[in-house]
Amino acid sequence: MRPGDPDMTAAALSFDVSELAGRRVLPRGQGPALFVQADISTLDGVESVVRAALDKTKSLEIRS
User: Fold this and answer.
1) Which letter, b or e, does each residue of 15-45 get, where b requires 16 or more Cβ atoms within 10 Å of its Cβ?
2) CA 51/CA 37 separation, integer angstroms
3) Alpha helix positions (H), 1-64
4) 56 closest CA partner among 26, 31, 28
5) 52 closest CA partner among 39, 34, 40
6) What residue numbers bound the domain in which 53 lies?
7) DSSP code string of 7-63
8) What's the predicted TM-score (pTM) here?
9) Which tens digits make up the pLDDT trace of 20-37?
């Protein structure tokens, strides 16, 4: 699948915001500190994720 394919559009996605209400959504032993809330469709969001990763691990490896 590539960006722009019909299955990748927001119109093709649906979700129920209450689907996980009252359920454990993180694996045991993992806390919210492992996650970064960011919109990676924007430059600011990507910079936020990279900054958080570098602050936490001091390195970052990106593979494609």
Assistant:
1) eeeeeeeeeeeeeeeeeeeeebebeeeeeee
2) 12
3) 43-57
4) 31
5) 34
6) 33-59
7) GGSGGG----TTTTTTS--S-TT--GGG-----TTSHHHHHHHHHHHHHHHS-----
8) 0.50
9) 788 777 777 777 777 888
User: Would you give the DSSP letter of residue 2?
Assistant: -
Distance CA 50, CA 62 (A): 10
Number of structural domains the chain divides into:
1
Q: How far is CA 39 from CA 4, 19, 33, 44, in A?
A: 18, 21, 17, 8
What's the pLDDT tens digit per position in 36-59? 889 999 999 999 999 998 998 888
**22, part of any domain:** no
Say how far apart CA 33 and CA 20 lie, in whole Å: 19
43 domain-assigned: yes
